[in-house]
Amino acid sequence: MSVTPNVTMTFSEEQGMLLDVARGFVRDQAPMDVIRAQLETETGFDPALWQSMVDMGWAGIALPDSVGGAGMGVGSAVPVFESLGGGLLGTPLLSTTLAGQLIWRAAGEAAASWLTRLCSGEVGALALLDHADWGAANCGVSLGSDGCLNGRKCFVADAGVADVFVVVANDNGETILAIVEASSLSSDALSHNVVIDLTKRSANVDFTGVAPVEILRGDRVASALRDTLLLGALLTASETTGAAALCLSGITDYLKTRKQFGKLIGSYQALKHPTVDIYVGMENARSFIYHGASVVDDDPLSEDAETACRMAKVAADEVMVFAGDRSVQFHGGFGFTWDCDSTLFIRRAQWAQQMFGGAIHHRKRLAALLLDS
Amino acid sequence: MSESKAALQAFKSEVAAWMAENVPSDPGFLLPLTFLEVGTEQQLDFLREWQHKLWQAGFLGMHWPTEYGGQGADSAYQFIVDKELGRHRAPIIFNTIGLNWVGPLLLDMGTEAEKSKYIKNILSAEEIWCQGFSEPDHGSDLGAVQTRAVKEGDEYVVNGSKIWTTLGNYADHMILLARTNTKTERKYDGLSFFLSPMKVAGVEAHPIRKVTGEYGFNQTFFTDARIPASCLMGEEGGGWTVAMKTLEYERGVTAGQASAYWGVAVQVDDMIDELSAIEQDGEPLLSDPIVRDDLVGFMMEAKALSLSARRMAIPALGTDYPMGLALSVKYRGTEYERRMKHYTASKQGAQSALYVGDDDAVSGGFWQRAYFSNFGATIGGGTTQVQANIVAEHVLGLPK
Question: Which fold has domain B5-128?
Answer without folding.
Answer: Butyryl-Coa Dehydrogenase, subunit A; domain 1 (1.10.540)
